[in-house]
Each structure stands twice: as structure tokens, then as C-alpha cells.
Amino acid sequence: MKGSLLKRGNYWYIIVETKDETGKRKQKWINTKCEKKSDAEKALREALTKMDNNSFVLPQRKLKFTDFMLDWLNNVIKSKVEETTWEGYQMVVTKHIIPYFKSQNDLLLQELQPINLQKYYETKHQNDLATGKKGLSAKTLRRHHANIKSALDFAVRMNLIPFNPADRILLPKEEKYNANYYTVEQLEKLFEVCMGTPIESAVYIAAHYGLWRSEVLGLKFDCVDFDEKTISIREVRVKIGKTVVVKKPKSESSQRILPLMENIENYLRALKKRQKENKLLFGKDYINSGLVCCWPDGSPMKSEFLNHKFKDILAKNGLPHIRFHDLRHSTASYLIKHGVSLKEVQVWLGHSTINITANTYTHIDMETKKDTAQKINDLFSNKSKGVAQ
Fold it and tell me: Cα dihedral sign for 184, 198, 305, 314?
């Protein structure tokens, strides 16, 4: 690429020819802010080299980082991700990133440096001693980082900035989460105390199959094949803002067909019969949702109620506190402890990769390995007595 120099006032300007989106040629004037021609000639050579390497960023209009993030959120990424995923992005950008950087002089996008992002993560991670508010976890900040990095990757591709400052920061170390789970005896007691409550079916089915809350609340009777003895996970019920949405599971691996257990088959047949009786009882007021887990009038059950009622039942019956989601962990832990491979557990739970399964249940898998080690030790213990000490 060729360029020339021209002095206007006190400064020398680089003049280069560029093309717009239509391919039309136009001149671009770049202020070197150099008063000496020798300095301007050096700036020209550097600019032309970067242009030839496609690494030169033309000076842009003054675009604030916060405005750029908002534009990326609403006009770039919104059409590329699921609505529920975008809701999460929106919360991170509007509730955390934008307010923080507006309070920090509202930097221009081109002025943003790694240190600015580093300070953001450090500030958000720290506890607020004045208010007693706990800082965000390292895991949560990794989601913030994913949003910022993705947006700034786009800025680099659009030649708005020369490099991505998010590539050069250090994130807080993530503490490994050890999932809580119930023993078989605790689960049996849980089934007993949940009997006759509105969340009976959700607890019973979720604990047997290790389903997500959204999966068990989205399960319909048309997904249960009593002839083929299968149960299909095809839909989930999730909350987007204040609206409940029914959609397909997020990944293909989450859309799975599982065998219908005998206990669950008997339970579902009895539940279906009970719903038919309720339909006659409520008459025209009955809601034909087709849901397995619902209110007596057929209306869907809200996730907030399920969580609250579950917590309340545990407290009233002296059971250790766990989240409803930990029923899923209980199922997985039981399977692994009884020799089911991580790959089989991955398929059963619908994890997209075996790494997710392995990272979540490492502590359980290690327990089974210890049992194996002890068995090997016992196997050879008698034969090793003659070995020199």
C-alpha cells in the first residue's frame, strides 16, 4: 500500500487510499501529531507496514467501551444465541460491566487496556467490607470474561482495536465445587415425606433419572411410551425474565431417550389415572397442559415454588439441606459408586462432553478407585509376605 505526507498547520498528516463497503476508493487522512517531517516519515512507514500486514487500525470516531458493549449485545450477538443465553449476557453487561466502567471515567474502546479489565475482575471478586456484600465467585467472573472477550474479539475483527486486551489478564482462581448428594437411605426418606405434596412427582422422577429441574417440569405424558418402555427428554420449561418458555434442551446430547424403569412406569400409570380423575372433577376449568408434574387442575408448576417447597420439606423433616438440583448429583454419585462408567453417566445425564462429568464427579470417581486399590491390595497381600522388607 502507498501513502503520502502533507502538512496542515503544525502537524503532518498521512494520506492513504482505502475502500469503503461498496469497493469505492476514498482518501483517509491520519494525523501523525508529528511536527517534524522526519518523525512523520517514520510514522508513515510504520503505518504502511501494519496496513500490509492487515494489523493497522484506522482512527475511529470516539466510541465508548460501554456503548460498544451495548451495541454488541443488542445488534451482534442477539441473533446468534438462544434467548435464554442472551438473557444471561444482558444481565452481565447491563448490571455489572456497564455500571462499573461508567464509574471509571467511561473509557473509549480504543483506550481500553488489560489493566482496566484486570481491575474490573479484582474489584468484582472482592468482598465489600462497608456493606458486607460478598464478591462474585471466580466461576461467575469467568462468564463475565467470556462476554467481554467475545465482544472484543469482534472489535478486533472489525479493525476497531489492534488487539484484544481480554487475552492478557489473569482471572481469579476458580474453587472446585464439590456437589452435595443424598445417600439411598436419605432419598428413600425424602420420597416418603414428599408423598402427597404438590412436588411429589417432580422429586420422585428427578431423583430416579437425574433430571434437571427444567427437564422434569417440562416432561409431558406424550414423551412417555408405555409400549416401548421409554421416556424421552424433548422439552424443557425455563424462565426468561418474567416469562416461562417451553423449548428444546440446549444441546443435542440433552435430548435423550431413557428406558422406562418399572418403578417409574407403575408410578406414572397411577399418576395418569389420578389426572384423568382430576379432569372430570375440574371440568371446563381443567387445563390440558399434558404435563407430568403439574397442579391438580393441570396448570404448570413454577420453578420458584418447587425450590421453596423442596427447601421447606427438608427443614421440617430434619433432612440435610441440598438444592433440588442436587438430586441430579445424588443419582450420578450413586451410579458411579456402583461401577457405572463416567461415559455411561455422561450419556444418562445428557452432558455434552465427558469432561463435564469427570470434573463434576472427580471426588466420587476417586472413591471408587480407592475401593479398587484396596481390592488389588487384598488380592496380593498374602503373596507378598515373602518380599524383602
Answer: negative
